[in-house]
Amino acid sequence: MLIHLLRQGMDITSVIVYILSVLMIIFLINPIHECAHGFIAYKLGDRTAKNNGRLTLNPIAHLDYMGAITMLLVGFGWAKPVPVNPRNFKNPRLGMLLTALAGPVSNLLAAVLGGLIMNAIYTVMIKNGSFIYFKGSIYMSSGFELGAMNYVFLFIEFFILINISLAVFNLIPIPPLDGSKILFSFLPSSVAYKAQRYEMYISVILLILVVTGGLSNLIYPVQSWLYGLINQLTALPFSWAW
Asked: 104: closest CA among 12, 170, 6?
């Protein structure tokens, strides 16, 4: 996304706001995403993540440098995967399904929280008589103080968009993404085993697609639709005030 923003000629302050939002994702949301995987696995009987010190919100424990760089450049990436042993689950298929879903769901919940905060601020400003109108990706407003709020809204918008991108990206059903584990929980074990044998090669292809922007055409339309949906849904609790 940074590459796209620079190509669009976005001002330097907005670029800095984007970088700050990415850093928040890397050091706060990514740990929640990975910890969600480990927590659900732990609750279902697998202590692998806990025993490896990964059931923690410490960002250093989950940091993947390449994933962080791609997140900065294209708006989606990855953290260090939490180890899970499905043999420790009473029902391995269901256990892996729920464990894999936990990460993307945490990103969607973070996006919803961002939407609620954005609409709450918007509602307070409208009730106080502030003038705001939406133009492109930035909330433009009158007055110096209100003008500064443009970047607050922009920060929250980036926060929502990146969380949606991470959820959509991780739900793609190819190894080693969460979506592949969800898919494998419905497929015969022999099929899943064959696919996992080639996971390293598929991971290289996936990395190339991410870096070259090959996945952007798939992710961005879904991201845009989900952003609109979340924005509409999170506006509902505040509609009484408009």
From this structure: 170
